[in-house]
Amino acid sequence: MSDMRLIVAGAGGRMGRALTRAIAESKGAVLAGALEAPGSELLGKDAGVLAGLPANGIKLSADLWAMSKEADGILDFTVPAATIANVAIAAERGIVHVVGTTGLSGSDNAVIKSVTNRAVVVQSGNMSLGVNLLAAVVKRVAKALDESFDIEIVETHHRMKIDAPSGTALMLGQAAASGRGIPLDEHAERGRDGITGARRPGNIGFASLRGGTVAGEHSVSFLGPFERLTLSHQAEDRMLFAHGALKAALWAHGKKPGHYSMADVLGLADL
Predict the structure, then answer these.
(1) Is 161 a catalytic residue?
(2) Which pLDDT band holds residue 261 (cuts at 50, 70, 90)?
(3) Which of 97, 157, 218, 243 is catalytic?
(4) pTM value?
(5) Is 259 a catalytic residue?
(6) Helix, strand, coil tally for the chain in percent (to 5)
């Protein structure tokens, strides 16, 4: 099979540049396009140079329809509005859409899922093997421990991250909720301030820290009577997520239409 031709969305951003490097460093894929927002001062710049590589002749453009004509997939770590705009084009072109964008609303996710009867979408709040293993373990532990163990999730990211809680924190929260057999949206506590009263039994708490250049740290604590269990993951470089996204795209190439997750890609769906 020939190399998979991939478009990097948000190619001028931190994650976009990491994705460009990951493609250049890996076998089985080539960069077919570099998408950037309309009006960006980076339009027309060489994607390779921006990523700290030799010039590759791929210029940043805002025209996804044109660049997707000869592409097989798109790696999308942008912002919700951009991702939703990309969904329809990717589906119309019939190319794999790997979605790592966080901060998506319920209606955004409904739009993404609406195309999966005719398109291949791999979507995850985190593309790393370690985090997906952590989610599988969190689900098992939550199932094993009753409500006498409170669940608290703490995440830390760099100062430039614009959404909270992180997509990974929400993914871990969903894993915990699934283990408990409860709907996360009815049991999530996303912030505490002032006189909040005692903690509600069965709720899943979230706390978000922002600062510095932290790539991503997450912990899930199960706090019971006289003992506490904490599971954690630290990301040391965002290239971890870039290589995970590339792995997802290569895995999805040729798959039947559907909505997949990194658990599917990594063979963890049944854990």
Answers:
(1) yes
(2) very high
(3) 157
(4) 0.82
(5) no
(6) 35, 25, 40
